[in-house]
Design a protein that fits this description.
With 145 residues, this protein is of the alpha+beta class. It has four helices and five strands; from the N terminus they run H-E-H-E-E-E-E-H-H. It has a five-stranded antiparallel β-sheet. The chain is rod-shaped.
Length: 145
Amino acid sequence: MRRALLMFVPLLAGLGSTSAFAAEGQRFQMEKTDRGYVRMDTQTGEMSICEERDNQLVCKLAADERSALQDEIGRLQGDIKTIEDRVLKLENSLTARMESKLPTEEEFQKSMGYMERFFRSFMGIVKDMEKEDKAQQPEPAPNKT
């Protein structure tokens, strides 16, 4: 049977007029066996066992292919779980660090007190400068008509 698998015949060679259909026909190769057909995907190398049922060709992945596929799915699901756990851990760590850097209510009020004192002092300086400017300006001459 292995020898028969090596001598694949194109499934749809020469059929179809569109390039997409022709490319799909070249992708799969089939060989007739005692129980039906064996189909090989020429791009991935996957093998499928096909049977004719109700005038339709029904294909299933070969048992070893199915096992390998299930193993790969299991491995990828494990990788996804690991990545999700890492993301959650990083998000929680980032949130904790950000919250720990925020000031407490007492620190915030203390800072606001400093700012208020600064602005009051600054506004006092501005008012003093305005008084000095007014004192230095000569009084306008009375209007004589």
